[in-house]
Design a protein that fits this description.
Blueprint: E1 2-6, H1 11-26, E2 30-35, H2 39-47, E3 51-54, H3 59-64, H4 73-91, E4 97-100, H5 104-117, E5 120-125, H6 153-178, H7 187-192, E6 197-198, E7 216-217, H8 231-238, E8 244-247, H9 259-269, E9 274-277, E10 296-299, H10 304-307, E11 313-316, H11 320-329, E12 333-335, H12 342-352, E13 355-357, H13 365-376, H14 378-388, H15 395-404
Helix pairs in contact: 1-2, 1-15, 4-5, 4-6, 5-6, 9-13
């Protein structure tokens, strides 16, 4: 059977699909991943032995560049829908499976392609807050704020249908009509389907009950990373007490240009060395070089599965993948949430007692020193180790068996 996995987003969207693709291939499926053409994604998929179909423009340039003009939004939505429809339709086969996540227009394009080809379609959310539930609010789009007077979660999710139709309905339906598919009144629920999947760990990101829709929660889709740490980084780790890891992944941190200095000073306030991940924000600090002779060591892309068990705490943006990696390592974490689902993950870290949620997206030395103090407290380490023992690592395997069963 041929399975097409599709996403348009950052590493946090691509890597789970790579983990699923490996398990599908082990079970005998033919797998292709439609994803942005960023070099780091191509390298990661190639290292896992997964065939990649590049679609659209690189994501990193868009994240770090100027925000698109409001008038350009409809054109970009239409382009994503069309490009992912074309790529997925070419890669899929009748009777096969299409699995999609990431930005909504890309998912809508993949879903329309599955309809045209005659393949089964599965929408997967990589965080619970993407799916309608009475237990949490929908993400608020800056251009489509909540209507005044709406406070209940059910009311907000009902209004979210209007929001999604306003943002994407015209372009999605125009494309559907152009390929011979009927238009839909509710683009959100049509694309999300009446039985979406949720690829999060049941402890870290549960699907609370009672719920008003059936959700298939598989567990997180993990990609085993066997890469060794760079020799100089290993030497730095061996040269003293466990440092604090700081990295904000794909977040550009436009609102916090001094983030590198802030996080290093906060760690130093607790007598800790720092491993500083440059990330898409290109974090840098004098003295944070690759020579390992200072109290800071700067790294590029690195194996978190090997690094996180060797650090005292992980300070990060709250992406689902980083939250899961730190939790599996049994390492306390500080989440400085920037957008979308990241406040949810910050709350979960605090609720589980495995670290601290920083209040707001822009840390100061004082605010981060306080949050880091909570994460470095002995009770946080004890709790993080306990939660690590409760997490499952077979989510991708379970999902692969469900898709092929």
């Amino acid at each position: 059977m041929r399975v097409v996995l599709s996403t348009y987003g950052s590493r946090g969207d691509v890597q789970p699909l790579a983990g699923l693709a490996v398990k599908l291939r082990e079970l005998g499926a033919q797998v292709r991943v439609c994803a942005p053409p960023d070099e780091e994604f191509a390298q990661r998929l190639a290292a896992a032995g997964v065939e990649m179909v590049p679609v659209g423009d690189p994501v990193r340039g868009q994240v770090g560049g100027k925000p698109p003009a409001p008038g350009d939004f409809p054109r970009r939505v239409a382009a994503l829908v069309a490009k992912f429809h074309e790529a997925v339709a070419e890669a899929a086969e009748p009777g096969g499976v299409v699995v999609a996540t990431g930005l909504f227009p890309a998912v809508a394009g993949a879903q329309a392609a599955a309809e045209v080809v005659g393949a089964r379609f599965v929408y997967v959310a990589l965080q619970p807050t993407m799916l309608p539930s009475p237990h949490h609010r929908p993400f608020e789009y800056p251009s489509q704020p909540y209507r005044p007077g709406l406070t209940g979660n059910r009311e907000l999710w009902e209004d979210n249908v209007r929001t999604m139709n306003a943002l994407f309905g015209e372009q999605v339906n125009a494309h559907r009509a152009s390929v011979g598919l009927p238009t839909v009144d509710n683009v959100r629920d049509h694309v999300f389907t009446d039985r979406p999947w949720l690829a999060t760990d049941q402890v870290l990101g549960p699907w609370p009950q009672p719920a008003e829709r059936e959700v298939v929660q598989t567990g997180a889709w993990l990609l085993v990373d066997g890469r060794p740490l760079p020799a100089r980084l290993s030497a730095f780790l061996d040269a003293g007490d466990p440092p604090v890891y700081v990295g904000f992944g794909s977040m550009p941190l436009h609102g916090a240009p001094d983030a590198a200095r802030v996080v290093v000073e906060a760690a130093r306030a607790h007598g800790r060395r720092v491993v500083l991940a440059r990330g898409w924000a290109e974090l840098a600090l004098a003295g944070a070089g690759a020579d390992g002779d200072a109290d800071c060591f700067a790294v590029g892309e690195v194996n978190q599965q090997a690094l996180f068990p060797r650090v005292a705490a992980v300070v990060h943006h709250g992406g689902a993948g980083t939250v899961t990696a730190a939790a599996l390592a049994g390492t306390p974490q500080v989440v400085v949430p920037q957008m979308v689902d990241q406040p949810y993950w910050a709350e979960r870290v605090a609720e589980l007692g495995v670290g601290a949620a920083h209040e707001g997206a822009v840390p100061t030395v004082e605010s981060l020193t306080v949050a880091l103090g909570r994460a470095l407290a002995p009770e946080a380490a004890v709790r993080a180790a306990a939660v690590a023992g409760e997490l499952r690592t077979d989510g991708a395997e379970l999902a692969a068996k469900l898709l092929l069963g």
